[in-house]
Amino acid sequence: MAKKSYSFYPGCSSQKAASASNYQVSVDAMCQELDIELNEIPDWNCCSASIGYAGGGELPRLALSARNMALSEQAHPDQDIVATCAACWLATRETQERLGEDDELLAETNQALAEAGLKLKNDKKIRHMVEVLIEDIGYEELGKHVKKPLEGLKIAGYVGCQTNRPFGIHGESFENPKYLDKMIETVGAEACNDYEKKVSCCGGALAFSEPEKSQALIKDILESAYDNGADMIVTPCPVCQMNTEVYQDQINAKYGTKFKMPVVYYSTLLSVAYGKSAKECGLDGQVIRARQLEEIAGK
Amino acid sequence: MSDYNQQMIEKYRGNFLKEVEANVEEGDWVKMCMQCGVCSGSCPLGPHWEHPPQEIFMMIRANKREDILSSSSMWMCTSCYNCIARCPRGLPITHIMHGLATYAKRLGLAPKEQPTAKFAQLFWDNLTKTGRVNELKLGLSLYFMNGFGEGIKTALKMKDVGLGMLKTKRMTPMEMLGGHKCKDVKGLQAMLKKAEELEEARIGKRG
Amino acid sequence: MADMKIGAYICKGCGLGERLDCDELATIAKRDGKAQVVQQHDFLCSEDGVSMIRNDIDNEGVNRVVIAACSRRAKTDAFNFDGEVCVARANLREGVIWIRPDEDEFQETTQEMAADYVRMGCAEVKYQTPPHPAEERGCHEAILVVGGGVSGMTAALEAAKAGYPVHIVEKEAQLGGAVGQMWKDIPMHSPYTDPVEPVTRRLIEEVEANERITVHLSSRLTKTSGAPGRFSADISAESGSTTTENFGAIVMASGATPYDASKLPELGYGKSPDVVDRVEMEKLAIEADGGPIKRPSDGKEVKKVTFIQCAGQRSEKEGHLPYCSGDCCLTSIKQAMYFKDRNPDIETEVLFTDLRTPGAPGEDFYRSGQDKEVTFRKGVVSEVVAGSNGPVVKFKDLILDEDVEEEADLVVLATGMVPNSGVDIELAAGPNVEGEEEEAQTDSEGNAIEIPVESVLNLTYRQGKDLPHLKYGFNDSHFICFPYETRRTGIYASGPVRRPMDTPQAIEDATGAALKAIQALENAKLGRAAHPRSGDLSYPSFRKEGCTQCKRCTVECPFGAIDEDEERYPKFNEARCRRCGTCMGACPVRVISFENYSVDTVGQQIKNCDIPDEFDEKPRFLVLACENDAYPALDMAAMQGNSYSQWARVIPVRCLGSVNTIWITDALNSGYDGVVLMGCKKGDDYQCHFVKGSEMAHYRMSKIDDTLEQLNLEKERVETYEVAITDIERAPKLINDMAETIDKIGMSPFKF
């Protein structure tokens, strides 16, 4: 397959030594195998995620994403924008949609952008990395690169919220998207097909401000994965990953549970299956080690 | 801020729906709610809302302005978008709730000690400073947002989480010294300033 | 009629040749079935196969044809020799090979099933004669439309456009009905956003301009008699003059009357002039005619109006309507727009518990109301009282869970509609299903109960003056399968008299009813059945010598088709008859029959099934299945690969109502181990094509226990079920249940 190039929006959490830096590591390994070129949008900024609303009003928030889109148009005019972070993707797509529907808003946004010497045409496709994998590469091709099938692993595909709603991956349902399950099967593992917390909320940013309420949600997500016999959880979202992974000790302390459930990214699974080393797959970034994956990667 | 509130009360005297339509993001949609309650039933933090979304829509029609704007309800939104995905009338409920929260804050009516309201402001301040979020600083300022004593307690409670992140190189103390940022912070801040001005002008015009 | 010559044709296609010994079947047709001509064909429904049969009919004198192939419901076009010969279908495909497993161990019993169906087919056809049209022919083409509202005028115009003369009888002095009293109506076309001119204005113009339509205003029907094709109606005007006209069919479009709001004093009606009902609200809008709407008390312009939904409706309270009138929510939205469209600052509030906006415009119109900022508030009103500036509405907001009192300038009660369905004949006549002497209903002191409702049709039928009512006083029509079709053939109910509906629905309804009326009168001209067996030529006749004048047939006929002649013998009005055979099932002395469907055509099938003796350990039980639902369900079960007991022998019947208990007795006497009856759903929400047939059958079968007791048989040997066409899994299971029952209680002692 020919090399595929995209204008890449990594987002704050994917930066070096940030909370999802291991996500970025595995994405790089996966893309290398699949001959996907990610061209980072120069000087990108934060999208303000879903929590920025109280500080910034509608237009300032839209302007933030518009700036990234304008920079992408400038630097990579012919490439779709691709994001790996759910919130980055969502905020950018939402901006694109809202500006596309409202000329007045677009004009005002451009007025603001002009202050930074930029202009937005708003003619790009905003895509999630998962869409690139499914639509541009395809499950079959994804499967062809598998060198070390993840046999014997049972994995719960936790899609979460923002990769799923309000836009979601094309062709998938809001209530039961199947793409993670298909990817799990593509790499030779077994999917928990009846994982009922697949699209439940982990609390998102409220894990910081309302830890107790959020951890109650996270507990249910973990519990359901255990009940479904999962060895680990896989997710496409940095917030989902962090929330379900790093609070397990606190949840155990509070609820008397004994969770020790690794939570990885789809890119972790793919890169391990593609025969990359544990380090290349970002497995050293697991707060809860994914021992089974480490073993496979170490073989 | 309370002047602004007074100004708005006088302007829309007794017609909170009109006020919401003019001042709240996606507020135009409020009147299209058909009171089915799917949003309230779909919300992950539904039980924690003082007034669930369905009720808020009805309260707007019943002119319960203060009750809504001073409520902690909208701050319970986790932005999971379940309500949007399921609303049979296609209302952008998540955005409306964000919009109401923002408006309440602008009017100075948002509950003073609402943790999410505070965190949201911290987040915004953090990102607008450099153009990118500094997770360490954000985390620390979050722990200390309720004062130094509380902050130490929270920080201690969160110590293990932080250590885990440090060990796996998903957090670095180096961020304290500046860390990631946009090169054109100046341009970005000018842009945001302009956007704020334009937005205020637009709201003023619409009202 | 020439001599009977039976031709039996055995198909070997669709796997029949492989699964069955067709040579043996041919021998059986010849030996047991007495078929003079027996042929086998690899593909009987092919052109070649059909022309083989036709050739035998044309050149060999075959006049009774037995098709031993697929179900009677399959290949009906290919095997259509109607009018020339009688045809019986031995169902070897859906009834035998598809419903039985293809395994060696079952081969013997499968072959026995097939052999029985061949015998039964030959027996059936032997007792049939080709049907001839009834001699009673109607010749009148005009259509009588009762009611001059939207439904009536639409029916009249549709019939007139199709070329039929029409008379409209309207009790008021002008056309238009309920919609004619509106300022505006709910939109009937996209975008469904704003109220529109009522359609009645255009309809009245068109009716008045149409040469084929005669309008009788301020008139009523004082007498209606006859049958499809030959109705006669006395049309009496208020002035006292009466004219008599003849009609081919009648459309009953008498509409509905607004509910009397004075029964709602708790909602302030009658206490405050500023509490009005929906009709009065229209009057206020007409008076304003686009200008500011003023309230009745002091003429002040209305600045706040509150609509109270379900006023006196959807309530079990005494004097309230238990049902939803269907259009009040839309009407209130429309009336709120009367205010909003003129001045968006007028406060309009609709208090509802469930907002229901049926029909095509419904949802869009509701959204438009929301868009115009009509406030919809979910609340239950407890009371409306007088306030200092206007009526005060007290209600509980169900969302906010709080009690609210709000003053308004005007309160509109969304009251319901009461159908003008005439006299409830069942109430008038008392229950008569048991065939008892008809008695006037009396109260405890023996005085006749007065029925204050005025008759609309004044029919001279023995069953009563008007169409039967179903639930809530609406005229009965076959609401599930055949709307408009009432139990009085040739009289079609349409519009809100048969169920609550709005204008677009009434227009659609009236169009359908007009077409039904045309179908009925055209069939009457040819002496054929109307519907649902449209075009059927057979009709019931009776053997006078045997008749005991018990009147069961006249009473049990669901359609009032049978009167009594001067000698008190049954008198069949063929044009009213739907050919269900309920009379045949009712007749205790079995003198009623159709040319191609009779006590014998079924009875002989029962007799000609081979009953093995008890030592063979092969039970036999009879399944009488309604051909409209149960039999297709069994066919479909076969298509889907279900199976049922090899001991069952299924005979389709026109309606379970046509089942004469002699069949059951005969079957049990001749050694059948059990009988299963399958009919359609009965009761208020019936699915029976013939409305009461299934109910009658269930009633008769409830008394079969006595017969079983006399025979010293267990009562589990006869089971009666309601089976829907969708019961594809259940119907075979019911058959298997009988097989199990027989297994449990043992075989019948009546085997030879």
Shape of chain A: globular
The named CATH superfamily of the largest domain in chain B: Alpha-helical ferredoxin
Main sheet makeup of chain A:
4 strands, parallel
**Beta strands of chain A, count:** 8
Total domain modules of chain A = 2
Distance between the termini of chain A: 28 Å
Which range best describes the helical content of chain B: under 10%, 10-25%, 25-40%, 40-55%, 55-70% or over 70%?
Answer: 55-70%
Instruction: Please state the structural category of chain A.
Output: alpha/beta
What amount of the residues of chain B lies in strands?
A: under 5%
Give the overall silhouette of chain B: globular
Low-pLDDT segments of chain B: none
Mean pLDDT over the residues of chain B: 90
- Count of distinct strands of chain B: 0
Order of helices and strands of chain A: EHEHEHHEHHEHEHHEHHEHH
Taking all Cα atoms into account, the compactness measure Rg of chain B is 19 Å
Which oligomeric form is depicted? heterotrimer
Can you tell me the CATH class of the largest domain in chain A? Alpha Beta
Enumerate the spans of chain A where pLDDT stays under 50 for 5 or more consecutive residues.
none
Largest interface here, residues on each chain? A-B, 67 and 68 residues
CATH architecture of the largest domain in chain A: 3-Layer(aba) Sandwich
What does this molecule look like?
The complex is a heterotrimer of chains A (299), B (207) and C (752). Chain A is built from 13 helices and 8 strands. Chain A is an alpha/beta fold. Chain A starts with a strand and ends with a helix. In chain A, the strands form 2 sheets. Chain A has a 4-stranded parallel sheet. Chain A has 2 domains: 4-129, Glutathione S-transferase Yfyf (Class Pi), Chain A, domain 2, CATH 1.20.1050; 148-298, Rossmann fold (3-Layer(aba) Sandwich), CATH 3.40.50.11810. The model of chain B has no long low-confidence stretch (mean pLDDT 90). In chain B, helix 8 (115-130) packs antiparallel against helix 9 (135-143) and helix 9 crosses helix 10 (148-157). Chain B has 207 residues and is mainly α. In chain C, helix 9 (328-340) runs parallel beside helix 10 (362-371). Chain C is elongated and about 95 Å long. Chains in contact: A-B, B-C. The interface between A and B is large, with 67 and 68 residues.
